[in-house]
Amino acid sequence: MLTKKQHELLFFINLRLKDRGISPSFDEMKEALGLKSKSGIHRLITGLEERGFLKRLAHRARALEVIRLPESAAAPARAPGFQPNVIRGQFKAAGRPVSSAESDSAVALPLYGRIAAGTPIEALRDHSATVGIPAFLLGRGEYYALEIDGDSMIDAGIYDGDTVVIERAETAENGAIVVALVDENEVTLKRLRRKGDSIALEPANKRYETRIFGPDQVKVQGKLVGLIRKY
Fold this sequence. Notes:
alpha+beta, 9-stranded mixed sheet, two-stranded antiparallel ribbon, 3 helices, globular
């Protein structure tokens, strides 16, 4: 699943490659998507690359190759003022906080959409989807579950297709794996590192780069507390 901006950028690059044989410049991409900075384009390209849609060609400036298009390959119609859905509020199971006082039966946690451990994406909640977690594994906080899409956290034992259990939180200790909201519209699962006034979101895969943000660009929305894997 791609965000709307990732989808738009992928098709824009693909069209330019077909028409001109060369990928557009960062300024052209920024203007086409209506973004204010090139850093947003860099994040989108990194996300598309990590998910196998795009490839940067080494030793060549502005060299991008479209590896594949989404299964629904129709070019998107841009929606002015588009605001992706992000994880906010309602992190309760069955309309109430989950607590350790509950019985040992399974607790139905709300299951949000696939979050890319390799790139920020909008995390959409399907209100009909839940996942059962043994109550004794949970504390007194509020929890939700996310499906992982990507491989940037594999060295932390988190793989594509895993389901992670997240405790809702607005703060986290240095080095914790968190759900982070970036620039109010992108969500990612990464290890949190604070360096002075800067915040680093660190992958657990040497193939991917650590990304640095200002203190007002990142909001913690939860901490990793568990993982479910189906074999």
